[in-house]
Amino acid sequence: MAELAIKAVPLICGKCSLRMTAHRQQVIYQCNGCGAVWELAQGRIAPRKVVHLSGNGNIGLPFWNAAFRITSQQGVIADTAGFMTLCGSVKPPDERAKLSPELYVPAFALPPQQAIRLGRNMTVRFPRFSESVNGDRSFEPVMLGEKDVPQLAELIALAALVEGRRNNQDFLASFGVELSGLRLVAIPFSREGNRLYQAEMNLEV
Amino acid sequence: MATIVFKCPQCGGPFEFAEGDCSSLCSFCGVTSLLVGDRGVHRLIIPERVDLKAARTSLRKLLASQEEGQAFAASFSFSGGSLLFLPFWRIRGMAMGWQWCEKETFKEEIDYDENGTRYTRRVKAPNERVFSLVAKPLSFSSPAGEYTPFGMIRVGLAGDVLQCEPMDYPVAAARGSVVDPLKGIAQARQEALAMTRDSIESEGVVRKESRIRISSEWLALLYYPVWNLHFTRGDRFYPVMVDAINGEVIKCRFPGEKQHGPFLPLAMLALLVLGWTTMPLAGVAATVLVFYLLKSRLGTWDASTIIKLLAGIPERGAGVQRG
Amino acid sequence: MTAKCPQCGFRAVLLTETSYHTCSQCRAVFRVYHGQSISEQFFRHEPDESLAWGALLGFLDAEGSCTPARRGEIAFAYHPFWLADRTDGSTLFKAAVALPDSFQAPPAPPAGDLEFSQKNASLSHSVIDPQQAFPETIELKRLRLLQVPLYLISYEVAGEKYQATVSGCAWQIHANRLPQEGGMHIPWPRLTFLAVYLTALLVAGVLAPNIIWRLGALLVILLAAWALERSGFGRG
Fold first, then answer.
1. Domain locations in chain A?
2. How many domains does chain B have?
3. B286 CA to chain C: closest CA distance, Å?
4. Does the residue B64 lie in any domain?
5. Which tens digits make up the pLDDT trace of B240-294?
6. Residue range of the domain that includes B288
7. Structure ipTM
8. Considering only residues 37 to 66 of chain C, which have any Cβ-Cβ distance to chain B shorter than 8 Å?
9. I want to staple C166 with a disulfide (CB 3.0 to 4.6 A). Which of A156, B72, C118, C151 is the partner?
10. Residue B69 forms part of a structural domain
11. Does C85 touch chain B (CB under 8 A)?
């Protein structure tokens, strides 16, 4: 047994040695000085990669982004066309039909129901962002850790499905979501008064 | 909710974490620190607030408040006590998932009886299938072992008044016995999720399916102090458990027994013999006096009570029991 | 075959096929079962038979037993129990060596201060296989062997024999059968004492020549009887 079973790790940037501040529930930290991003890994501060996506906006909102596939009693659905069929939507243009669908899981502070709704709305719009050339921009505090992503991802995927699927007990019992290529991305939104707006997706938070 | 008092790794000053928090700011040096548990588990101890003397006083007060308490307090003697630290699992986070259920539904139909009077009746409608997302804050504590002998089934953490410290085993072992956890975290999680599932309304539900997991989990093993006191009376031994935070007696079991001293029955017999062997009138007076003494001491002239008094058999009462 | 010591983590090469080993680093004993190291731990306890007997008497008192119990044989020993964590999160607790007939084993693991067993002759090391202890086909995630301090007490109440198990961890009593409350126990020693006392009073009262002698004699007999009572004579 460890003699002292807890330790406190000071939040100091490993790059520029500046003190970092954090919200009490924050799990990934960004240095206000140099913009480097850190997380707690195996009892110490370790660098965390964040991909900044391009777009118009003055505030970066963090999301967990991953390709996903759905497993159910009907088999595995690993392409966008199949996923959109489950959602009861019109098929997307051909060039995206065979691609893996991508999930967006909000990682910033948001009530659970709102987070699921936002994630669902983003996922079914199947946006295609490119990486921004202006890296190391600031973004909102990350409150959702990587290990909690699969859970919320499953709920977002379920929320996107047509109601008939969700009311089928056998389908639900066998339903599962597998993620691959999970990454933390920062998507630019515009703050307009009390609302946050993403122009490319025509989406409001 | 409990707060954890810690030492700042930069300046050594005391600073506080609230349960469930990942980080906290030191008000002395302004450095924010993250709290890291051993393999993800924060092992914490609540320092005892009640010392041995106060624990014994608490028991004496309990006994004094009972009908036969004074007699108990006089007849039992304290033979030792030790401090125990009982581990409890503490889980905070968000219980998230989904629940599907099939519910019975009823509808009201208007009908007419043979007299033409209109009335409504309740008839069964097709079952309703409902899917709902579950997102409930979770704050759960569960004993990490079998503590019913100690009278403890949960630990109550009241607001800001309860402060914890990081667990230091050698220091704690020097103050008392640290009980080892025997229930694993997986079982505690199952219990927490079962509690969440039970809290979801289930009226009229004929079948259900759910998948709920804990998100943003904050996990702690909290060691709660309890005094284990030993009392004896003759060759009998009575263990007593006293909460070392609020001083409440949480487990005790004393028999409800009223034992009269030996002098009274011997003195009554001597008085009767003195009276009747002197003169009949003295005998009558002695008999009246004996009956008066019986009434004042026992409260009754019941034959079985008098026989028990003479035979030295203790009377059974309610006793004192907690936990 | 190699196995990891459950106390210090030292990975030892096991040269024999026996299932019971001592770690060369920390001297903890452990077993190997299907390639898995199983720790053996015992509850720290100072044996005290009089406390165990006192706990049983206190328990019988609180249960309402009026008749005094007569102490029989008390056997103290550490008894091995398997503690298994299942994959579904529940735990199973079963005796690894059967207790003697009519003694009840504790149904759940007691709470106490555990230590890793060192090679100690006083602990029972031959135990039944976990598969025998848990015969149902169930997933066992983790196995531990716990040595629980138990007192096996035989006692008698009103001529009838009883057995009880007292756990040394929290002085818990486990018994299949307890003395039934009912019927008044006749304290013959006490009644004999009273009869002798009354006889002495009557003889003194009748033979005394006057009231002064009578009073003095009765007072002496009373005080003598009271002193004898206080010393425990006549209680049997």
1. 49-190
2. 2
3. 14
4. yes
5. 999 999 999 999 888 766 666 778 888 888 999 999 999 999 999 999 999 888 8
6. 263-322
7. 0.87
8. 41, 44, 50-51, 53-55, 57-59, 61-62, 64, 66
9. C151
10. yes
11. yes
